[in-house]
Amino acid sequence: MAKQQRAVRTRESLIRSAAEIFDREGFTVASLAMISSQAGVSSGALHFHFASKAALAEAVESAALDRLRIIAGVASREGAGRLQYLVDVTHGLALGLRGDVVLRAGFGLCGDAARVAPDGLREHWRRWVEEAVAEAEKAGELRPGVAPEDAVIAVVAATAGFEVLGSREQVWLAPHTIARFWELLLPALAAGDRLAALEPEGSFGD
C-alpha cells in the first residue's frame, strides 16, 4: 500500500511540475529533463509513469478538466437560475485561472501551436456554455429575440480572451473585470423580469 501511495504522489508531482513548466515555458520549450528536475524525481521514474511529453500534456489536460468540473459543481446552487449559474462559473473559472497552475496550463496547452488537440479544454468549455445557455432559454431566462448561439459566442469569446490576457496580466481575471463584463452583457441577455435578481459580481463561494 505504501508503495502504491508513493507512486500516486510521484505521478501527481509530475503532473503539477509539468503544468508549471508548460505554463512558464510552453509545450515546445518544455523538456522531460526540466519536468523531472522540477518534480525532484529521476528520469527513470518519470518514464515509468509517462512515456512521453505528449502523454504528460494529456495528463495535465485531464487534471485541468477535473478541476473545471469541480468549479462548475461548486458554483451550482439549488434553485439558482441558469444565467446566475453561468455568471458564477465564469467567476469561479477566473479564480481558478489565477491560482491553479494545472487549470491554467490545461487551457494554455489548447492554444499552443505546436500541440493542437481536437478536444481540448477550451472545446469542453464551449460545450458547457452551450448547455448552460440552452437551459437558460428553456427556463425563459433569455430576453426575447436573443439567439442562444449569439449568447454562446459572446460568453465563450470573452472568457477565452480573459484567459489568454490573464496569463500575462492577472487584472484580466480579477473579480471586478468579470463583473464589469456581466454588467454590460446581462441587460442584453436576460429577460426583463429576471434581470434585477442577477448578480454580475457573482455569488461563487457564498
Can you walk me through this structure?
By secondary structure, the protein is mainly α. It is built from ten helices and no strands. The protein has helices at 2-25, 32-39, 43-49, 53-75, 82-99, 101-110, 121-138, 148-166, 175-189, 192-195. Helix 1 crosses helix 6 and helix 4 (53-75) packs across helix 5. The protein starts with a helix and ends in an 11-residue tail after the last helix.
Task: Indicate the topology.
Elements: H1 2-25, H2 32-39, H3 43-49, H4 53-75, H5 82-99, H6 101-110, H7 121-138, H8 148-166, H9 175-189, H10 192-195
Helix pairs in contact: 1-2, 1-4, 1-6, 4-5, 4-6, 5-7, 5-8, 5-9, 7-8, 8-9
Question: What structural keywords apply?
Answer:
206 residues; mainly alpha
Q: Nutshell version of this structure?
A:
It is built from 10 helices and no strands. The chain is mostly helical and 206 residues long.
Which percent band covers the strand fraction?
under 5%
- Average pLDDT works out at 91
Oligomer: single chain
Largest sheet: none
Total beta-strand segments: 0
SSE-based structural type: mainly alpha
Identify the overall geometry.
elongated
What is the helical fraction, as a range of percent?
Answer: over 70%
- Low-confidence runs of at least 5 consecutive residues: none
- Measure the end-to-end span: 38 Å
Number of helices: 10
Order of helices and strands: HHHHHHHHHH
Radius of gyration: 19 Å
